């Protein structure tokens, strides 16, 4: 499970059981009370059966830890203490640079494709789809899926290497 910690919302994404594909899951509204927010996160961890929580770390473009990343690390420490102790869940961080930008790009593409399909394949509408009267589409859960997928891709074993849990076919059968 991944968390994109924002000031007003927490984007949540999950992966399939084999840890191959990340998907947007839910957006939690921040309550202003971290204990309540952490309880909501714990409920989701139990609901989806997560064993690892990947928290997005908003490092600066040059890789430095700024104010936002320092605040996220403080939350991570508290989540580790809470979720680790109560549920035995590992809490790790992942670089989330540009994940929100990528999430907005995907949303625009999705809306353009939908509009083109509605028009029988004749182009999309002018302007930026999904934004009306200054409303920003909620993409926090999509951003969480973006960095979760990146984390999963880096965490997966190399498929070209033999599976260490299977017997080595080059060794003679011990029986």
Q: How would you describe what is shown here?
A:
This protein has 175 residues and is of the alpha/beta class. Helix 3 packs across helix 4. The protein has a five-stranded mixed β-sheet, with helices on both faces. The chain starts with a strand and ends in a 20-residue tail after the last helix. Strand 2 (9-15) and strand 3 (22-29) form a beta hairpin. It has helices at residues 34-48, 67-87, 99-118, 140-155, and strands spanning 2-5, 9-15, 22-29, 52-57, 90-95.
Q: Please, what is the CATH homologous superfamily?
A: YqgF/RNase H-like domain
Radius of gyration: 20 Å
Count of alpha/pi helices: 4
How do the strands of the widest beta sheet line up side by side? 3-2-1-4-5
The CATH topology turns out to be Nucleotidyltransferase, domain 5
Low-confidence stretches: 128-136
Mean pLDDT: 79
Task: Please indicate the percent range of residues in DSSP E strands (runs of 2 or more).
Answer: 15-25%
How many beta-strand runs?
A: 5
Which class in CATH terms?
Alpha Beta
CA-based shape:
globular
What fraction, in percent, of the residue positions are helical? 40-55%
Please give the CATH architecture. 2-Layer Sandwich
Secondary-structure element pattern, one letter each? EEEHEHEHH
